[in-house]
Amino acid sequence: MVTTADPDPLLLEMSGIEKSFPGVLALRDVSLSLRRGEVLALMGENGAGKSTLIKTLGGAHQPDAGQIAIDGSPVELSSPTASIEAGIGVIYQEFNLIPALSAWENIFLGRERTGFFVARGAERAKALEMFERLGVNIPIDLPCGDLSIAQQQLVEIAKVLSQDVRILVMDEPSAALTPQEVDKLFTIIRDLKDQGIGIIYISHRLDEVFEIADSITVLRDGQYVGGSPSDAMTRRQLIEMMVGRSIENEFPKQPAEIGNVRLAVTELSRGQLVQDVSFDVHAGEVLGLTGLVGAGRTELVRLIFGADERDGGQVSLDGKPLKLRSPREAIRAGICLLTEDRKSQGLVLGRSVRENFGLPNLSRFSRFGLLRQRQERSFFARYVDSLSIRIPHQEQLAQHLSGGNQQKVVLAKWLQQNAEVLIFDEPTRGVDVGAKHEIYQLMNRLAADGKAIIMISSELPEVLGMSDRILVMHEGRVTGEITDVASATQQQIMELAIS
Ligand SMILES: Nc1ncnc2c1ncn2[C@@H]1O[C@H](COP(=O)(O)OP(=O)(O)OP(=O)(O)O)[C@@H](O)[C@H]1O
Ligand SMILES: [Mg+2]
To answer: Could you tell me which CATH class the domain 261-498 is placed in?
Structure first.
């Protein structure tokens, strides 16, 4: 069939897409259409099939059934190269950067194949220009492996933006970014939109979706469950469509009884990164720690956790000074850190989810293989249930889980350590609204048990919604403390974060 009659065909039309993996039906008869200059938000719970759908668009997966048409003509996206040639640019949820190469080398990697020879100097200059356009400052000559997660994400974005795309797909590009960086990203998206580029945007942050999207498409359990222009849908309707139930209160903070000081940090320092930081966390307290990317929040908690060496300062637990020289010692002393970089510090992708869950707990489970497996299994089953981790079975390899479900496995792994002080670095990043709610309730329970909790978060509604007290950091120092959280505003935090 030749479609020449339609004067303004859709930019992209996907219809009847199906895809299954062993034991998982990931997509069932999914259709989606995109017009020029449209921003379509693709929404759904963790494991709903969003990434799988866009991987068929990027030529990374071949659908088992269904058609894809661009400008009304069917296309065969048999490989990533075919997809790029069709004008599709995809920013994947997992980064594909080569750690040993610099930012600019990563951006132009594999580009020679297009037949152009661009001198290295010119490439570097072009990369600099890209980052300038993005309004960010990236050390572009450093190996990407040395960049922070946020910086790596920005490199991924620059990499795709430097291609000539007509359809741009972004799978959770904002998960690692702060509100300021997201603003810059949105300026670029609006610019691309004006050029007639169609954009598919995936995010678990609902505020963003209502700000940037023209239309919303929702998947649940691999199926299309609904869609509409974004101004015709309320936040509540969207949540209900995604999780299949209504959530009354997105931040179910329960006031716990605040007890004695448990963790005391005095004059902790490490070079420029952390300068003379002192604070306490009490039993039953959730201390929110916020600030811009690079403010030193992660560096600070790594010092507390014994992951880096400090220049000076003291950490005490329940009045006893600790001498922690490694994370292992910190865990033994009762301090846990859920890192922000789940991929490299949290999970062994080639192992099963059960094994990943058991890894830090070798001493807890019996030494005899089979018995240990059985114990691990039943412990893990509880978390699979309470955090609704979506897996066909516990032996599934971690690499086959959706991004949000990987995150939940890491969370489960640390939660059952029975720690006294829990440090969560961006605990709900990439997690769907339903599961966020579960994580918040879990934090409530831990606080009610008298644990001390530090929650690093860049999502201000979350910081305001779940903290008993808030510390704001800027350039390695604590620049503000908010004790009356109930009457605090995002504006107030932002001012402290840049002062
Ligand atoms: N290569 C694979 N092998 C086996 N199962 C897979 C594979 N890729 C995805 N899946 C499964 O397909 C389903 C859909 O996963 P997908 O990654 O598309 O979810 P998602 O909507 O992107 O979720 P998230 O919000 O957590 O990123 C999940 O159950 C996932 O475990
Ligand atoms: Mg995904």
So the answer is: alpha beta
